[in-house]
Amino acid sequence: MNDPTGAKSRQLPSHSSATSASRRGLLLGAAGLAASLPFNATGAVTLFSKEFSNSKGKANVSNKPAIVLVHGFWGGAAHWSKVIVEMTRMGYESIHAVEMPLTSLADDAERTRKMIAQQKGPVLLVGHSYGGAVITEAGNAPNVVGLVYIAAFAPDAGESLAEIAQAAPAPAGAANVAPDSDGYVWINPAKFHESFCQDLAHDEALVMAVTQKAPLGSVFGSKVTVPAWKSKPSWYQISSNDRMINPKNQERMSGRLGAKKIMTLKSGHASLASKPHEVSALIDEAAKATMA
Q1: pLDDT per residue over 219-260, tens digit each?
Q2: Neighbour tally for 216: CB within 10 Å
Q3: What is the pLDDT of residues 166-198, one digit of tens each?
Q4: SS3 123
Q5: What are the beta bridge partners of residue 146?
Q6: What is the dihedral of CA 179, 185, 189, 194, to 10 degrees?
Q7: Residue 42 phi, psi dihedral angles, 5° rounding
Q8: Region label for 23, one of left (φ > 0), alpha (ψ between -120 and 50) or beta (otherwise)
Q9: pTM of the entire structure?
Q10: What's the first-to-final CA gap in the chain, in angstroms?
């Protein structure tokens, strides 16, 4: 139809042609993004690198160790979110949080070893809760320069988590833990806040409860082989109001480590979330000590 104003009409593209163009654009954009991402040898994307180029194109290498964070039971790598932000603000450029299957100590230690092996320089391992047992087992790698335990298990050779737990009265939260029909052990979601993270806000605890990552019950019986803390320097943070690992057990384990520093926080088990500034400060102190 002719435009009564005399202007030339312009035919709009059909829906199908617009969709095809949109798809082509998305594919081209995705291809460009993939080409620009810094993939490592395992196909994982490295978002924080110890090496970067300055304005003159020369590589700058930080002398700080890579920080490898290892989560515990009933949570994943995201439990370290606040610590990751704090450590980044402190200037750490190489921060990695391992995501473990929680199917066996051997599986979890092997996943952690692979993360350690991807680092080009020194590594400081940080473990929360069960993550302490994992860094104890995996921390003998030659590039590991220290171990930081955050309200964590630190088993001796031939010792399991179950045996450690029996060395002190059961903490209050133990009554709220039970296995399901598949053998995975859960904290009752209705009791998660009071058991795991009583010093966090209700909404944050709710998300933790709903997203909790349950371990297989058999993991509690796994025994450490060669404890890394016998040959590597260590630091330990005790949570004095912990309802998942008896604080008396934390005091006993930190004492036998011969830790360079033992810091006690008035916090629940999830001190990495309720006291991220203090926890990050301890990690920073440990990292600086390994650089001395």
Answers
A1: 999 999 999 999 999 999 999 999 999 999 999 999 999 999
A2: 17
A3: 999 999 999 999 999 999 999 999 999 999 999
A4: strand
A5: 124
A6: 110
A7: -95, 0
A8: alpha
A9: 0.81
A10: 82
Let me know: does 198 contact 243? Beta carbons within 8 Å.
Answer: yes
Judge contact between 177 and 276, C-beta under 8 A. Answer: no
Q: Tokens 């460009």 sit at which residue? A: 32
Task: Give the residue, 29 or 144, on which the prediction is more confident.
Answer: 144
The full set of domains in the chain, from first to last, is 60-291 (3.40.50.1820)
Compute φ and ψ for 115, nearest 5 degrees.
Answer: -65, -40
Both tokens assigned to 131? 């993550």
Name 96's bridge partners. 68
- Please say whether the beta carbons of 272 and 196 come within 8 A: no
In which residue are the tokens 């993550």 written? 131
Q: Are 53 and 84 in contact (CB under 8 A)?
A: no
- Token readout for 196 is 């795991």
Please count the other Cβ atoms lying within 10 Å of the Cβ belonging to residue 223: 16
Do 185 and 217 meet the contact criterion of CB atoms below 8 Å apart?
yes
Distances (CA, A) of 168 to 68, 171, 187, 224, 252: 30, 8, 20, 19, 10
Cα 49 to the chain's mean position, in Å?
17
Query: Residues near 145 by Cβ (< 8 Å), separated by ≥ 6?
Result: 65, 122, 123, 124, 232, 233, 290
